[in-house]
Amino acid sequence: MNKTIIININGIVFHIEEEAYEVLRKYMIEIKRHFGKSPENQEILEDIEMRIAEMFSERIEKGRKEVVTMEDVEQVINQMGRVSDFEENSFESEEESAKETGYESEEEVVNKKLMRDPDDRLLGGVCSGLAHYFAVDPLWTRLILLVFVLLGGSGVLVYLILWIVVPKAITRSDKMAMRGQPANLQTFKESFQKEMDGVKESFSENSEQFERSSRYAGSVLLRIIKAVVRIVFVCVIAVIVLLLITLLIALCVGILGIFGLVGTSAIEPLNYLDPREAIWGFVAGTMVVFIPLFGLLLLFMRLVFKQKPVSNYLSLTLFSIWVISVIGVSYIAISNAQDFVETGAIKVEKELQEHEKFYLLQRNSKVIEAQSSADGDRLINIKTGDLEALLHAKIGIRFETLDSGKTPYVQYNYSAQGKNYEIAANRASKIKYHLTQDSDRLIFDSHFSLDKNTLERNQRVDLIVYLAEGTQVNISKELRSKLRGISYSACEPEEASNRAKSTDWVMGPYGLICLEKQDVDAEGGVETEAEVN
Questions:
Q1: Could you tell me which residue ranges the Phage shock protein PspC N-terminal domain spans (predicted)?
Q2: How buried is residue 457: exposed, middle or buried, by Cβ count under 10 Å (0-12/13-18/19+)?
Q3: pLDDT tens track for 476-525
Q4: Chain segment 173-201, per-residue pLDDT in tens
Q5: Is 271 in a helix, a strand, or coil?
Q6: What is the Cα–Cα distance from 69 to 388, expressed in whole angstroms?
Q7: Residue 11 pLDDT > 50
Q8: pTM of the full structure
Q9: Of 181 and 455, which is predicted with more confidence?
């Protein structure tokens, strides 16, 4: 049984075999002799010890063991390299070392890590970190971010989320992993030498007094700038958070209203969606708004309290859910937009009894206005309270001159939209609208209705009344909004006190012509209670 020794490397305790310890001790003495020539090299010695401790910890955890063996020490030395590897005559020294130890130096395979670069940052170092990861100039990643910000603002949310999720490269090992450099003696020395050369070049031309003064002034100015930027940034984040909270509350109240859980009005925009899609759309839409809001709240807490409130695992999980939700909302929007591609129409003709004069009236439904569409024409029957079957007022009435010798008739044009013509025509066939003739009176329904659970797909009814030339027509004022091709107000008296309840017209060779304006005492409408099926 091999004897073990307890050692401390960079504050971490390890159990190591005695033979392995002797090899490691000689290796560390060799490193300290080389890098301990100057007090400035103390930092690189600490970084090397930290890297060795990390590598031992990784091997112990991977091998599920408690003792560092000779194999572990040899592998670590292999990856870190020897001092002789980068001194003069390194090729000969490497061959001799390989013969003595009995193994060849293996090239360490390094995978880049996505980390934020604190040395080349404008705000959080995200863009420079991405540039290192994809091996491009940081200017390009910053330009791409700027384009996304200008196009819609999504770049700001992505940047803030990455700022929270992506860790910061703090140690020299982190910075090497960020750049894809192997963490060995050669790269440690090169990295440290670059830093020292940069410092020497920056301050070689200045005296010691000027160096202290400028460094102090720069430090004070930098602190002031950082404080101002932090305050402004916190204020901006707070305003954005408040706006998103307001948006989220409005979204929740609107959705609850849609499902009839709040308020007394019937809000029906989800009549455009299938009920199952509506539920998933609500969930996905809420996540699209809520997760960025939550991310901003976390960022706000991190800036104010200087603590990381959640783990990287939770941040990545929320980001994944947000991406899936965006995809879901996009899919629902695109699939429903495709349901408005084709327009289908159905034409039905019905004859009318001939009269020298027709009185056009409207059968009104007792309705209240619900949350209507943009043109304000969707209404709900107040008596039945059935909020699923809607009344619609997308109705147009035109008048055309009938060829001589033919019987007057009405042409019904029902139209709707769908993914293809067959679906659109089928929807159009389900429109329920009535025009009733009572002697010389033509009574038009004020609205048409749809079956329960029928999706809103721009359904409408257009009627064309064909009358013989010379036929007189008295049009009720209640039909004025439905008239097409003529202006009801053009046939009204100019005096507001003489506004007519109806106007008289006569069918000319090219359509209706206004007759003498007069107040007609006939009823302006026949009021009934429409039942919504």
A1: 112-169
A2: buried
A3: 988 888 999 888 888 887 765 456 788 889 998 888 998 865 444 334 44
A4: 777 777 777 655 566 666 656 655 554 55
A5: helix
A6: 76
A7: yes
A8: 0.46
A9: 455
Helices (H), 135-184: 138-152, 154-165, 172-179
Beta-carbon contacts of 144 under 8 Å, excluding residues fewer than 6 positions away, are: none
Alpha-carbon distance of 347 to 306, in angstroms, equals 70
CB neighbour burial string for 42-58, b if at least 16 within 10 angstroms, e if fewer: eebbebbbbbbbbbbee
Q: Which of 372, 407, 419, 424 is nearest to 393 (CA)?
A: 372
Length of the chain: 533
Q: How far apart are CA 259 and CA 278, in angstroms?
A: 10
Which class for 401: exposed (0-12), middle (13-18), buried (19 or more C-beta within 10 A)?
middle
Structure tokens at 527: 């009021």
Q: In what order do the strands lie in the sheet with 395-402?
A: 342-351, 409-418, 460-468, 395-402
Domain boundaries, the chain: 4-101, 225-339, 341-527
From residue 69, give the alpha-carbon distance in Å to each of 2, 19, 21, 55: 10, 8, 9, 13
Is residue 77 exposed (0-12), middle (13-18) or buried (19+ Cβ within 10 Å)?
Answer: buried
Residue type, 495: E
Q: How far apart are CA 2 and CA 17, in angstroms?
A: 6
